[in-house]
């Protein structure tokens, strides 16, 4: 099967993102006056967005048509408020317009900082790992390897938690709610995709995922943007049984493109199951 390339056309993506965010809004929720005639399109009208953001209707039209505008930070902030964007969506919009983190956007981390690698070892017996922005697993402890897979047996290019979820024969069946895990992973990668437009490896990964997994392709097309910092996952481990974990994602101030992920057992049964994990 031929794998297509997913390049970041920031102008067209910004246009599409603004349209989808406008169309999802309910005018009644924003206290806008009702109209006598029925609406032919879902969500807000461009005129309403322009009024809420304090810009001209023509400006909104040109933005949504991808006609090469470069909105300022002030305009982006106004549009974010008008469209009721979440913090992650707002960051995504700023990234698309190249108004955020220009100093780090072209230098993605491909290995763990030594102090972070030592930290995940010190976190034993809790499973822990270090991820970069594209979900590459760049450091881990033996408990995480026992819970997921022996990462050392994988080629470095396949030590990617999203690839493992979608394509690895063992870990793709690990998650009880795999649909949600895939959807949240796609939303995270979309944020990284905008923040790191020059990352060819990330572009190729997204293309591969979209081509080979229908769930990911559907989630990617929804254009959701969400970077989860904590939550719960339930896994059916082939040797230890069902394990529910609460996860926490920490971002070091000096390594903003790396994340320390820590799993904790969510209940007594899961704590006992973790004790049965193999050591890698």
Please provide a written account of the structure.
By secondary structure, this protein is α+β, with helices and mostly antiparallel strands. The protein folds into two domains: 10-96, 434 Repressor (Amino-terminal Domain), CATH 1.10.260.40; 114-274, Beta-Lactamase (2-Layer Sandwich). It is built from twelve helices and five strands. Helix 2 (46-53) crosses helix 3 and helix 5 (87-96) runs parallel beside helix 9. It is elongated and about 60 Å long. It starts with 9 loop residues before the first helix and ends in a 6-residue tail after the last helix.
Q: Concise description?
A:
The protein has a five-stranded antiparallel β-sheet. It is elongated. It has helices at 10-23, 46-53, 57-64, 73-82, 87-96, 114-122, 142-147, 161-167, 178-195, 200-212, 214-221, 268-274; strands spanning 128-132, 137-140, 230-237, 241-250, 258-265.
Characteristics:
280 residues; alpha+beta; 434 Repressor (Amino-terminal Domain); Beta-Lactamase; 2 domains; five-stranded antiparallel β-sheet; 12 helices; 5 strands; Lambda_DNA-bd_dom_sf; DNA binding; Helix-turn-helix domain-containing protein; MLTR_LBD; Cro/C1-type_HTH
Might you state the CATH topology name of the largest domain?
Beta-Lactamase
Tell me the structural class. Answer: alpha+beta
* Rg of Cα set: 21 Å
**Widest sheet: strand ordering:** 2-1-5-4-3
Spatial separation of the terminal alpha carbons = 34 Å
What overall form do the CA principal axes indicate? elongated
CATH architecture of the largest domain: 2-Layer Sandwich
User: How many helices does DSSP assign?
Assistant: 12
Low-confidence stretches: 102-106
Helical percent range?
40-55%
Count of extended strands = 5
Query: How many structural units, i.e. domains?
Result: 2
Q: Give the rounded overall mean pLDDT.
A: 88
Largest sheet, strands/sense/barrel = 5 strands, antiparallel
Q: What share of the residues does DSSP label as strand, in percent? A: 5-15%
